[in-house]
Each structure stands twice: as C-alpha cells, then as structure tokens.
C-alpha cells in the first residue's frame, strides 16, 4: 500500500543563509551612526561659532576662571636705581611666503603695532669703597659709578594690536582647526627686538646718568656736602 504524504525540504538555497538578518542589522546601525555624526558636527560647530561676532551666546557659552593663586618662586634684592624710562611704539610688517605656492594659497602677512617701555638704571650696588672719596671736612665727595644700562623691553598688551592679517587658504584652514589660531608670538618677539634697538639709539642711558647725578647731588647736599662730583666709568676688569 502506497502512502501518500507531503515531504518538507528544509534545505535553504545556497547564498541566502542569514542574508536578511544581516541586512536588518546594517539598516539598524545607519540611524545610530547618523545620530553620532550629527552630534559631533553640532559639538564642533558649537566650539567654533563662538569665534563669529553675534553667535557667541548661541550655545549658552560661559567663561569660568578656575586659575589657581599666584605662587612666589623667588625674591631678589634690587640695588639698581631706575633713573629714566622711555615709551616706544613700532610698526611691524611681517610676511611669510612659501616656495612654489601663491600667497592666496599659502602665506601670511601681519601688520602689527607694538608699544612697550624700556627702563634705564644705574646699579649703585656695584660701587665699591674705592668708588667713594670724601675729604676730611666732609664737604666734598667724589663718586665713580658704573654706566647706566637698559632693561629688557616690556611690551604693553593694552597698547599693542594687530592692524591687519592676510592669510592664505591653507593658513586659514590651519587656524580653524588649531587650538591657538592666529598666534602673534612672532610679531611680538620682533616688536620687542625693534623697541630694544630704538632704546639703544635714543640716548636713554645718558638721560639716566644725568638724572642719577642730580639725585645724588641733592641727597648728599642735604647731608652737608658742598661739592659733589659724579663720574661714570666701566668697571675695571
């Protein structure tokens, strides 16, 4: 007797095993990846839009100062008498080019106004016993002092500013992705150098020596000295 039945073939066709689940998983990952990318773009724009005028408060940006207190590292006794001070201003025109590339692609030019102060002083601490002569009546005194010297130029950030900045496309992109865009370290350094040179040619040390002489004559005159002679000479060596 022949039995009639339905035969069920559970064998899957080659090439179709697990295709639909993998496609479903892939489609499920796409929205998650899109959300992550959008969040990164939003975060990036939030940090950069603050550079544009009028958009700083779009993301509720706040500034909090968490700086620690200043710590005293050392103390130095000063014996120099600051007798003169000069205020200087210099215009720095600094240009940087790249070979084989036009300025519109790679290159910078900065026009910067630097203002700073240079002080001239006489180190009275270098005057030894041989540099002071007093007569027996204590009415005349002769002093031999070292020549006045210039201090390091101190650039004033409140009076220094960039007039214009020209940057190539690659430089603008570099500043956009940089944590310190448009650094003015190079022009600041050049401004300090030029101010120092101007101070050397200004006669500031001569003025400092003249002021020091007037101060010592007035001081010793109040102590009863009738004649005070002040000379300046290089230290013996």
Report what the structure shows.
The protein is built from four helices and eight strands. 31% of the residues lie in helices and 26% in strands. The protein is elongated, with a radius of gyration of 37 Å. The chain is α+β, with helices and mostly antiparallel strands and 237 residues long. Strands 1, 2, 5, 6 and 7 form a five-stranded antiparallel sheet that branches. It has a three-stranded mixed sheet with strand order 3-4-8, with helices on one face. β3 and β4 (140-145) form a beta hairpin. It has helices at residues 19-48, 169-177, 185-200, 204-222, and strands at residues 80-97, 107-123, 132-134, 140-145, 149-150, 154-155, 161-167, 227-232.
Mind sketching the topology for me?
Elements: H1 19-48, E1 80-97, E2 107-123, E3 132-134, E4 140-145, E5 149-150, E6 154-155, E7 161-167, H2 169-177, H3 185-200, H4 204-222, E8 227-232
Q: What are the secondary-structure elements, in order, as H or E?
A: HEEEEEEEHHHE
Helix proportion: 25-40%
What's the overall geometry? Answer: elongated
Rg, Cα atoms, Å? 37 Å
Distance between the termini: 134 Å
Please report which band the strand proportion falls in: under 5%, 5-15%, 15-25%, 25-35%, 35-45% or over 45%. 25-35%
Taking the sheet with the most strands, its summary is: 5 strands, antiparallel
Please tally the β strands and state the result: 8
Kindly state the mean pLDDT as a whole number? 76
Give the count of helical stretches.
4
By secondary-structure content and strand pairing, the structural class works out as alpha+beta
Low-confidence parts = 1-17
């Amino acid at each position: 007797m022949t039995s009639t039945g339905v035969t069920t073939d559970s064998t899957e066709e080659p090439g179709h095993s697990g295709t639909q689940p993998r496609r479903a998983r892939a489609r499920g990952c796409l929205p998650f990846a899109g959300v992550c990318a959008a969040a990164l773009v939003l975060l990036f724009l939030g940090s950069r839009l603050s550079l544009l005028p009028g958009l700083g408060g779009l993301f509720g940006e706040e500034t909090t100062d968490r700086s620690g207190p200043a710590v005293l590292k050392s103390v130095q006794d000063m014996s120099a008498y600051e007798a003169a001070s000069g205020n200087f201003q210099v215009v720095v025109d600094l240009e940087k080019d790249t070979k084989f590339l036009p300025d519109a692609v790679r290159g910078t030019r900065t026009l910067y106004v630097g203002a700073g102060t240079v002080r001239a002083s006489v180190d009275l601490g270098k005057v030894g016993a041989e540099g002071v002569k007093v007569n027996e009546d204590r009415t005349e005194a002769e002093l031999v002092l070292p020549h006045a010297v210039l201090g390091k130029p101190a650039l004033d950030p409140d009076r220094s500013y960039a007039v214009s900045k020209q940057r190539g496309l690659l430089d603008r992109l570099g500043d956009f992705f940089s944590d310190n865009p448009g650094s003015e370290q190079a022009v600041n350094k050049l401004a300090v150098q030029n101010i120092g040179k101007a101070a050397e040619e200004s006669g500031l040390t001569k003025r400092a020596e003249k002021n020091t002489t007037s101060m010592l004559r007035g001081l010793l005159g109040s102590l009863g000295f009738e004649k005070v002679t002040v000379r300046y000479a290089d230290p013996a060596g």
